[in-house]
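Give me structure tokens for this 209-residue protein.
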Amino acid sequence: MRIWKARESEIALGKFKVGWPGKRIKFEELCDQFERSHFAGISEGTIKGYRAYLKHLKAFFGGFVLTNITTKLVEEYRDHRRQQPSLRYKGRTLKGATVNRELECLTCLLDLAVRRQCIPENSARAVKHFNELRERPYKQMLTLDQENRILSAASPHLRVGIILLVRNINPCLAFSVILLSSTKKHPLYARQRKQRGLAGGAEESRDVK
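Here you go.
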């Protein structure tokens, strides 16, 4: 009786897999449903990215019914993909960031299956992703002497942008300042040109004397 009550509670909470449509739906069918429901309102570039992820997901999970895609199986996929050779960088394996994007795509697929009540829970959500920060190149900070030499050599109209960039205050603002101040209509650029002209004229006058 106690076991029966426990099973009733599991069924009520959706944990006991009784009559789930996911027992009959294969992964490839879910991919087709995902494309029909998700691709309508996104750009061609995003669709291209999703299709690249789906290609690899289908190659591994193809033939599995949805209820058989467990957390352990997703972890096997994650580790398998991490060991695959990179097409862009010879002699290297796929970056963890690439595998993470594929796992996120798989999570979206299984979320769709949960919303449509094909499976009780998303097994991909329990899978740990790779730490992408470890793969990024080490950023060496400039010394004060290096920073001063760069600023001394830079044109006056570029110095504000360089300071913002070096101090990491606002990279977007820094690039905007550099680009805008490099245009001929910008007052800083015009002022610099005027100063150069005055300096050049002064030198010529000295040479004449």
